[in-house]
Amino acid sequence: MYSMNNAAAQYKRINTEGALNATPHQLIQMLMNGALDRLIQAKAAMERGDTALKGQLIGKATDILSGLQSSLDPKHSPDLVDKLNALYDYMQRRLFEANIKNDPGIIDEVSDLLRTVKSSWDEIAPVV
């Protein structure tokens, strides 16, 4: 379902610690954790009125979502890939809106959606 080369490249841009020994499954988990961490930080920056940091963190979360989206491999489960692609697109658009409107509720919405995707991913047994 995911192209590991794209996921690995995105993860390297975000955080290299532990990536060398990570399985492809773990790389996706790390990316999702990274996006969730940045969303938590962005919401806190928003609530403090730190507009510059909020924008940077939302941008980083959006980049991670874009990396996850570009990692989707349509050769595996095309219907699921289409749905995930649309969901990642929706989350990115909502984060853009959250940034413009300064709306922490939208960040919560995207975080909830991503946690749902991540919990499903966490339940999938990695292919060894």
What does this entry look like structurally?
The structure is a single chain. The protein has 128 residues and is mainly alpha-helical. The chain has one domain (24-122): Up-down Bundle (Four Helix Bundle (Hemerythrin (Met), subunit A)). The protein is built from five helices and no strands. The chain has helices at residues 4-14, 24-48, 51-71, 78-101, 104-123. α4 (78-101) packs antiparallel against α5. The longest helix has 25 residues, at 24-48. It is globular.
What key attributes describe this structure?
128 residues; mainly alpha; Four Helix Bundle (Hemerythrin (Met), subunit A)
**Element order: H for helix, E for strand:** HHHHH
Q: Figure out the total of helices.
A: 5
> How many angstroms separate the termini?
15 Å
Provide the CATH topology.
Four Helix Bundle (Hemerythrin (Met), subunit A)
Strand content is: under 5%
Structural class: mainly alpha
How many domains make up the 3D coordinates?
1
Write the layout of secondary structure elements.
Blueprint: H1 4-14, H2 24-48, H3 51-71, H4 78-101, H5 104-123
Structure summary:
This protein is 79% helix and 0% strand.
